[in-house]
């Protein structure tokens, strides 16, 4: 696990370190992508180095680099190295922050960060919210996109995006 983790960490670190030299966007036609990536389901496992090499050659190069300094478009946020590390830790430990009883440490951290945001934004004591990973570029019925602007509205009525059951602050 440590050896594989180091390979992934090196891959991501190299990407972030060379971001300015990479193209902002590189794309493929569907036919080209299918030729490079698609195929029948494998009948047996493949070693990690082979899979990583395939990702590096045929998958990873073909995307828009949102953290690129030349990218100014539709995405609200992008990954930064500290966020990558945080996601890695959260995924590795499989934290469930949906109930205090199973994760009082991570839950307290989230509440503390929300209090910092409240203070920085000049919101009144008792205002709250939740941390999200952002919105998808194209909203789906399960998207948080309609809720996010309402939840972050600083003044005024919350309007029609809230139902009587919606609760975005802690008591």
Give the arrangement of secondary structure elements.
Blueprint: H1 2-17, H2 30-37, H3 48-59, H4 81-93, H5 104-120, H6 147-151
In words, what does this structure look like?
- The chain has helices at 2-17, 30-37, 48-59, 81-93, 104-120, 147-151.
- The chain is mainly alpha-helical and 171 residues long.
- The chain folds into two domains: 2-84, Up-down Bundle (dopa decarboxylase, N-terminal domain); 99-161, no CATH class.
- Content of β-strand: under 5%
Distance between the termini: 42 Å
Q: Give the number of DSSP strands.
A: 0
Helix/strand/pairing category: mainly alpha
CATH superfamily caption of the largest domain: dopa decarboxylase, N-terminal domain
Fill in the CATH topology of the largest domain: dopa decarboxylase, N-terminal domain
Radius of gyration: 20 Å
Unreliable parts: 135-148, 154-171
What portion of residues is helical?
Answer: 40-55%
The secondary-structure element order is: HHHHHH
